Protein backbone atom coordinates (compact mmCIF):
# COMPACT_ATOMS: atom_id res chain seq x y z
CA UNK A 1 0.00 0.00 0.00
CA UNK A 2 1.45 3.35 -0.84
CA UNK A 3 1.43 6.22 1.61
CA UNK A 4 -1.10 8.27 -0.34
CA UNK A 5 -3.51 5.35 0.09
CA UNK A 6 -2.97 5.44 3.85
CA UNK A 7 -3.63 9.16 3.94
CA UNK A 8 -6.80 8.71 1.91
CA UNK A 9 -8.06 6.03 4.27
CA UNK A 10 -7.34 8.12 7.34
CA UNK A 11 -9.14 11.11 5.90
CA UNK A 12 -12.34 9.19 5.29
CA UNK A 13 -11.94 8.84 1.53
CA UNK A 14 -10.86 12.41 0.94
CA UNK A 15 -7.44 12.62 -0.58
CA UNK A 16 -5.15 14.79 1.52
CA UNK A 17 -1.83 15.99 0.16
CA UNK A 18 1.22 14.41 1.76
CA UNK A 19 2.98 16.67 4.25
CA UNK A 20 5.55 18.82 2.56
CA UNK A 21 8.20 21.45 2.94
CA UNK A 22 8.95 23.99 0.25
CA UNK A 23 11.14 26.66 -1.23
CA UNK A 24 9.24 29.64 -2.58
CA UNK A 25 11.50 32.14 -4.33
CA UNK A 26 10.33 35.27 -6.09
CA UNK A 27 11.67 35.07 -9.65
CA UNK A 28 12.97 38.63 -9.60
CA UNK A 29 16.55 37.80 -10.53
CA UNK A 30 19.18 35.13 -10.01
CA UNK A 31 19.40 33.39 -6.63
CA UNK A 32 22.47 34.35 -4.62
CA UNK A 33 24.41 32.09 -2.30
CA UNK A 34 22.25 33.15 0.65
CA UNK A 35 19.06 32.12 -1.17
CA UNK A 36 20.70 28.85 -2.20
CA UNK A 37 21.70 28.16 1.39
CA UNK A 38 18.11 28.72 2.54
CA UNK A 39 16.89 26.38 -0.22
CA UNK A 40 19.37 23.71 0.88
CA UNK A 41 18.18 24.03 4.48
CA UNK A 42 14.51 23.82 3.45
CA UNK A 43 15.33 20.67 1.45
CA UNK A 44 17.23 19.10 4.37
CA UNK A 45 14.49 19.84 6.88
CA UNK A 46 11.84 18.37 4.55
CA UNK A 47 13.75 15.31 3.37
CA UNK A 48 14.98 14.33 6.84
CA UNK A 49 11.43 14.46 8.23
CA UNK A 50 9.80 12.31 5.52
CA UNK A 51 8.21 15.19 3.77
CA UNK A 52 7.77 15.98 0.13
CA UNK A 53 9.68 18.98 -1.11
CA UNK A 54 7.90 21.45 -3.37
CA UNK A 55 9.05 24.44 -5.39
CA UNK A 56 6.78 27.44 -5.82
CA UNK A 57 7.50 30.49 -7.92
CA UNK A 58 6.07 33.55 -6.19
CA UNK A 59 5.66 35.44 -9.42
CA UNK A 60 2.76 37.73 -8.54
CA UNK A 61 5.04 40.71 -8.90
CA UNK A 62 8.65 41.60 -9.57
CA UNK A 63 9.08 38.74 -12.04
CA UNK A 64 12.10 39.14 -14.32
CA UNK A 65 11.79 37.35 -17.64
CA UNK A 66 13.68 34.05 -17.61
CA UNK A 67 14.73 34.23 -13.99
CA UNK A 68 12.35 31.42 -12.95
CA UNK A 69 14.13 29.00 -15.28
CA UNK A 70 17.57 30.19 -14.19
CA UNK A 71 16.56 29.70 -10.56
CA UNK A 72 15.32 26.19 -11.36
CA UNK A 73 18.58 25.39 -13.19
CA UNK A 74 20.68 26.72 -10.31
CA UNK A 75 18.74 24.74 -7.71
CA UNK A 76 19.21 21.60 -9.81
CA UNK A 77 22.89 22.26 -10.33
CA UNK A 78 23.57 22.20 -6.60
CA UNK A 79 21.66 18.90 -6.42
CA UNK A 80 18.21 19.84 -5.12
CA UNK A 81 15.20 17.88 -6.24
CA UNK A 82 11.50 18.36 -5.66
CA UNK A 83 8.19 16.78 -6.52
CA UNK A 84 6.90 18.25 -9.77
CA UNK A 85 5.30 20.36 -10.98
CA UNK A 86 6.75 23.74 -10.03
CA UNK A 87 3.79 25.89 -8.99
CA UNK A 88 3.48 29.39 -10.42
CA UNK A 89 1.26 31.69 -8.39
CA UNK A 90 0.12 33.53 -11.52
CA UNK A 91 -1.72 30.32 -12.56
CA UNK A 92 -3.74 30.42 -9.35
CA UNK A 93 -5.31 33.89 -9.48
CA UNK A 94 -8.89 32.57 -9.57
CA UNK A 95 -8.23 30.59 -6.39
CA UNK A 96 -6.94 33.65 -4.51
CA UNK A 97 -9.92 35.70 -5.77
CA UNK A 98 -12.35 33.04 -4.57
CA UNK A 99 -10.87 33.18 -1.08
CA UNK A 100 -11.06 36.99 -1.02
CA UNK A 101 -14.73 36.72 -2.06
CA UNK A 102 -15.40 34.12 0.60
CA UNK A 103 -13.81 36.25 3.33
CA UNK A 104 -15.69 39.30 2.06
CA UNK A 105 -18.96 37.34 2.04
CA UNK A 106 -18.26 36.41 5.65
CA UNK A 107 -17.78 40.07 6.59
CA UNK A 108 -14.08 39.53 7.28
CA UNK A 109 -12.70 42.22 4.98
CA UNK A 110 -13.04 45.91 4.22
CA UNK A 111 -12.09 48.17 1.37
CA UNK A 112 -9.19 50.49 2.02
CA UNK A 113 -8.59 53.67 0.06
CA UNK A 114 -5.59 54.89 1.99
CA UNK A 115 -2.40 55.87 0.28
CA UNK A 116 0.88 54.83 1.83
CA UNK A 117 1.37 58.39 2.93
CA UNK A 118 -2.02 58.64 4.62
CA UNK A 119 -1.22 55.51 6.60
CA UNK A 120 2.15 56.86 7.70
CA UNK A 121 0.67 60.20 8.70
CA UNK A 122 -2.47 58.90 10.44
CA UNK A 123 -2.43 59.15 14.21
CA UNK A 124 -2.27 55.60 15.51
CA UNK A 125 -5.39 54.49 17.30
CA UNK A 126 -5.19 53.51 20.96
CA UNK A 127 -4.23 49.82 21.34
CA UNK A 128 -2.83 49.78 17.82
CA UNK A 129 0.80 48.63 17.83
CA UNK A 130 3.34 50.88 16.08
CA UNK A 131 3.44 50.27 12.34
CA UNK A 132 0.00 48.65 12.33
CA UNK A 133 -2.74 49.84 9.99
CA UNK A 134 -4.40 52.74 11.86
CA UNK A 135 -7.94 51.66 10.99
CA UNK A 136 -8.81 54.68 8.82
CA UNK A 137 -11.11 52.77 6.45
CA UNK A 138 -12.20 50.00 8.79
CA UNK A 139 -15.62 51.37 9.65
CA UNK A 140 -16.67 53.74 6.90
CA UNK A 141 -20.30 54.36 6.06
CA UNK A 142 -21.33 53.81 2.44
CA UNK A 143 -21.31 57.60 1.96
CA UNK A 144 -17.81 57.97 3.41
CA UNK A 145 -16.65 55.11 1.24
CA UNK A 146 -17.97 56.83 -1.88
CA UNK A 147 -16.27 60.03 -0.82
CA UNK A 148 -12.94 58.32 -0.25
CA UNK A 149 -13.16 56.27 -3.39
CA UNK A 150 -12.18 59.27 -5.53
CA UNK A 151 -11.72 57.17 -8.63
CA UNK A 152 -9.13 54.98 -6.99
CA UNK A 153 -9.77 51.25 -6.71
CA UNK A 154 -9.58 50.01 -3.14
CA UNK A 155 -7.20 47.53 -1.60
CA UNK A 156 -8.88 44.80 0.44
CA UNK A 157 -7.82 44.34 4.04
CA UNK A 158 -8.61 41.54 6.43
CA UNK A 159 -10.61 42.61 9.47
CA UNK A 160 -8.35 41.11 12.08
CA UNK A 161 -9.91 40.24 15.39
CA UNK A 162 -6.65 40.19 17.26
CA UNK A 163 -3.58 42.37 17.53
CA UNK A 164 -1.10 39.53 17.94
CA UNK A 165 -0.72 35.84 17.24
CA UNK A 166 1.71 33.13 18.32
CA UNK A 167 3.55 30.79 15.99
CA UNK A 168 5.81 27.90 16.75
CA UNK A 169 9.32 28.17 15.35
CA UNK A 170 12.05 25.58 15.78
CA UNK A 171 14.70 28.26 16.31
CA UNK A 172 12.69 31.05 17.91
CA UNK A 173 10.39 28.89 20.04
CA UNK A 174 6.97 30.42 20.59
CA UNK A 175 7.15 33.66 18.64
CA UNK A 176 4.41 36.20 19.25
CA UNK A 177 4.08 39.00 16.73
CA UNK A 178 1.73 41.74 15.61
CA UNK A 179 -1.34 41.12 13.49
CA UNK A 180 -3.15 44.10 12.03
CA UNK A 181 -5.77 44.65 9.35
CA UNK A 182 -3.30 43.68 6.66
CA UNK A 183 -3.82 43.86 2.90
CA UNK A 184 -4.96 40.66 1.20
CA UNK A 185 -5.56 42.21 -2.23
CA UNK A 186 -3.66 45.22 -3.42
CA UNK A 187 -5.44 48.09 -5.10
CA UNK A 188 -4.10 47.00 -8.50
CA UNK A 189 -6.04 43.75 -8.02
CA UNK A 190 -2.96 41.63 -7.29
CA UNK A 191 -3.37 39.14 -4.44
CA UNK A 192 -1.07 40.08 -1.59
CA UNK A 193 1.88 37.87 -0.71
CA UNK A 194 0.44 37.22 2.76
CA UNK A 195 -2.75 35.82 1.22
CA UNK A 196 -1.21 33.74 -1.56
CA UNK A 197 1.41 32.18 0.69
CA UNK A 198 -1.24 31.00 3.15
CA UNK A 199 -3.58 29.61 0.50
CA UNK A 200 -0.77 27.82 -1.32
CA UNK A 201 0.91 26.35 1.73
CA UNK A 202 -2.43 24.91 2.83
CA UNK A 203 -3.47 23.71 -0.64
CA UNK A 204 -0.25 21.77 -1.14
CA UNK A 205 -0.05 20.19 2.29
CA UNK A 206 2.91 22.32 3.36
CA UNK A 207 3.11 21.97 7.11
CA UNK A 208 6.77 22.98 7.48
CA UNK A 209 7.97 26.41 6.37
CA UNK A 210 11.73 26.93 6.33
CA UNK A 211 12.81 30.38 5.12
CA UNK A 212 15.02 33.35 5.90
CA UNK A 213 14.48 34.98 9.28
CA UNK A 214 13.79 38.34 7.61
CA UNK A 215 10.25 36.96 7.22
CA UNK A 216 9.60 36.00 10.82
CA UNK A 217 7.54 39.10 11.54
CA UNK A 218 5.13 38.04 8.75
CA UNK A 219 4.57 34.60 10.25
CA UNK A 220 1.98 35.65 12.88
CA UNK A 221 -0.18 37.37 10.23
CA UNK A 222 0.07 34.36 7.96
CA UNK A 223 -0.64 31.85 10.71
CA UNK A 224 -3.60 33.94 11.87
CA UNK A 225 -5.04 33.99 8.35
CA UNK A 226 -4.46 30.25 7.97
CA UNK A 227 -6.42 29.66 11.16
CA UNK A 228 -9.20 31.98 10.01
CA UNK A 229 -9.47 29.92 6.82
CA UNK A 230 -9.74 26.70 8.81
CA UNK A 231 -6.20 25.47 8.20
CA UNK A 232 -3.62 24.35 10.68
CA UNK A 233 -0.72 26.83 10.69
CA UNK A 234 2.57 25.25 9.60
CA UNK A 235 5.53 24.87 11.92
CA UNK A 236 8.23 27.36 11.06
CA UNK A 237 11.99 27.35 10.94
CA UNK A 238 13.28 30.86 10.32
CA UNK A 239 16.93 30.43 9.46
CA UNK A 240 19.70 33.02 9.80
CA UNK A 241 20.44 35.19 6.82
CA UNK A 242 23.67 35.59 4.91
CA UNK A 243 25.27 39.01 5.37
CA UNK A 244 28.09 40.82 3.64
CA UNK A 245 31.22 41.84 5.51
CA UNK A 246 29.53 45.11 6.54
CA UNK A 247 26.81 43.13 8.27
CA UNK A 248 24.20 44.05 5.65
CA UNK A 249 21.96 41.48 4.00
CA UNK A 250 23.77 39.96 1.04
CA UNK A 251 22.65 41.27 -2.34
CA UNK A 252 23.72 41.27 -5.96
CA UNK A 253 25.68 44.45 -5.24
CA UNK A 254 28.15 42.41 -3.23
CA UNK A 255 29.99 41.12 -6.27
CA UNK A 256 30.17 37.45 -7.20
CA UNK A 257 27.26 36.00 -5.22
CA UNK A 258 25.24 34.10 -7.85
CA UNK A 259 26.21 30.75 -9.34
CA UNK A 260 26.67 32.42 -12.74
CA UNK A 261 29.01 35.10 -11.30
CA UNK A 262 30.92 32.53 -9.29
CA UNK A 263 31.20 30.24 -12.34
CA UNK A 264 32.69 33.16 -14.27
CA UNK A 265 35.19 33.53 -11.43
CA UNK A 266 36.15 29.86 -11.86
CA UNK A 267 34.14 28.50 -8.91
CA UNK A 268 31.97 25.44 -9.58
CA UNK A 269 28.53 24.68 -8.17
CA UNK A 270 30.15 21.86 -6.15
CA UNK A 271 32.53 24.37 -4.55
CA UNK A 272 29.62 26.66 -3.73
CA UNK A 273 27.81 23.76 -2.11
CA UNK A 274 30.96 22.89 -0.14
CA UNK A 275 31.07 26.49 1.13
CA UNK A 276 27.44 26.19 2.21
CA UNK A 277 28.23 22.99 4.18
CA UNK A 278 31.14 24.70 5.89
CA UNK A 279 28.95 27.68 6.78
CA UNK A 280 26.49 25.26 8.37
CA UNK A 281 29.21 23.50 10.35
CA UNK A 282 28.47 20.29 8.43
CA UNK A 283 31.79 19.74 6.65
CA UNK A 284 35.43 20.54 7.16
CA UNK A 285 37.40 22.74 4.77
CA UNK A 286 38.04 20.93 1.49
CA UNK A 287 35.37 18.30 2.13
CA UNK A 288 32.74 17.87 -0.58
CA UNK A 289 29.38 16.42 0.27
CA UNK A 290 26.32 15.59 -1.81
CA UNK A 291 22.89 16.56 -0.55
CA UNK A 292 22.07 12.95 0.19
CA UNK A 293 25.29 12.53 2.20
CA UNK A 294 24.53 15.76 4.02
CA UNK A 295 21.01 14.54 4.85
CA UNK A 296 22.53 11.49 6.57
CA UNK A 297 24.50 13.70 8.96
CA UNK A 298 21.99 16.55 9.30
CA UNK A 299 21.15 17.50 12.86
CA UNK A 300 19.06 20.63 13.03
CA UNK A 301 19.93 21.10 16.72
CA UNK A 302 23.52 21.84 15.74
CA UNK A 303 22.92 24.44 13.06
CA UNK A 304 24.50 27.85 13.64
CA UNK A 305 22.04 30.44 14.94
CA UNK A 306 24.04 33.45 13.83
CA UNK A 307 24.10 34.95 10.34
CA UNK A 308 26.75 33.74 7.93
CA UNK A 309 29.13 36.54 6.98
CA UNK A 310 29.99 35.86 3.37
CA UNK A 311 33.26 37.14 1.99
CA UNK A 312 33.77 34.76 -0.90
CA UNK A 313 33.82 31.02 -1.52
N1 LIG B 1 8.91 34.66 -2.01
C1 LIG B 1 9.48 35.08 -0.76
C2 LIG B 1 10.89 35.56 -0.99
O1 LIG B 1 11.51 35.19 -1.98
C3 LIG B 1 9.55 33.97 0.26
C4 LIG B 1 8.23 33.61 0.76
C5 LIG B 1 8.18 32.54 1.82
O2 LIG B 1 9.13 31.72 1.91
O3 LIG B 1 7.20 32.49 2.53
O4 LIG B 1 11.39 36.32 -0.18
Explain what you see:
- By secondary structure, this protein is α/β, with parallel strands linked by helices.
- It has one domain: Rossmann fold (3-Layer(aba) Sandwich), CATH 3.40.50.620.
- 34% of the residues lie in helices and 16% in strands.
- It contains 11 helices and 12 strands.
- The protein has helices spanning 3-10, 33-47, 67-77, 93-105, 116-121, 142-149, 193-203, 219-228, 259-264, 269-279, 291-297; strands at residues 20-23, 52-57, 87-88, 109-112, 155-158, 164-169, 173-178, 183-185, 208-212, 235-239, 242-243, 308-309.
- The strands form 5 sheets. Strands 1-2-3 form a 3-stranded parallel beta sheet, with helices on one face. A 3-stranded antiparallel beta sheet has the order 4-5-8. Strands 6-7 form a two-stranded antiparallel ribbon.
- Strand 9, helix 8 and strand 10 (235-239) form a beta-alpha-beta unit.
- Helix 7 packs across helix 8 (219-228).
- It is elongated and about 70 Å long.
- The structure holds glutamic acid.
- Residues 24-26, 58, 197, 211, 215 line the site of glutamic acid.
Descriptive tags:
three-stranded parallel β-sheet; Rossmann fold; single chain; three-stranded antiparallel β-sheet; disordered N terminus; alpha/beta; about 35% helix; 11 helices; binds glutamic acid; about 325 residues
Q: Any idea what the radius of gyration is? A: 21 Å
Low-confidence stretches: 1-13
N-to-C series of helices and strands:
HEHEHEHEHHEEEEHEHEEHHHE
How would a crystallographer describe the biggest sheet? 3 strands, parallel
Beta-strand percent range: 15-25%
CATH level-two architecture: 3-Layer(aba) Sandwich
CATH evolutionary superfamily: HUPs
Please report the first level of CATH classification, the CATH class.
Answer: Alpha Beta
CATH fold-level label? Rossmann fold
Bound molecules: glutamic acid
Number of domains: 1
Please, how many helices? 11
Amino acid sequence: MDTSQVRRDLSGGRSAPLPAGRFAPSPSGDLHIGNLRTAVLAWLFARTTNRQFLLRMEDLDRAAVGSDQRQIDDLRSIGLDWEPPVTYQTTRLAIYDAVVSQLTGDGRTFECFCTRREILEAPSAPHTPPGAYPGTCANLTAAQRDERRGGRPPAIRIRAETTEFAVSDQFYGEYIGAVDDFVIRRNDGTPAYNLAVVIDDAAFGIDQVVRGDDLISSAPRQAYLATLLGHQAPTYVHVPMVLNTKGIRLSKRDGAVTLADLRDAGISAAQVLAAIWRSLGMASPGETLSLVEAAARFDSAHLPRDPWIFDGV
